[in-house]
Design brief:
0% strand, mainly alpha
Length: 69
């Protein structure tokens, strides 16, 4: 593993190079976030489709509500 700074891209002193570099890093991060979000959505969709349907409850459940005033 090489952690020296020699392989980092050179930035101009005017600041424009830094802005371009920051924009490129930001775009890569947004793409990675989007890919992670899509993977999460696909995983959730697969999990819900793999689940068995809920068991039906009795027809009288919830028909009577006790209200005291």
């Amino acid at each position: 593993m090489n952690i020296s700074g020699g392989n980092l891209p050179a930035m101009s002193s005017s600041g424009q190079g830094g802005e371009v570099y920051t924009a490129a890093l930001s775009k890569k991060q947004q793409l990675a976030d989007g890919a992670a979000a899509l993977a999460l959505i696909e995983g959730a969709a697969q999990a819900t489709s793999a689940q068995s349907p809920a068991q039906s409850v009795t027809a009288t459940l919830g028909n009577n509500v006790n209200i005291y005033v």
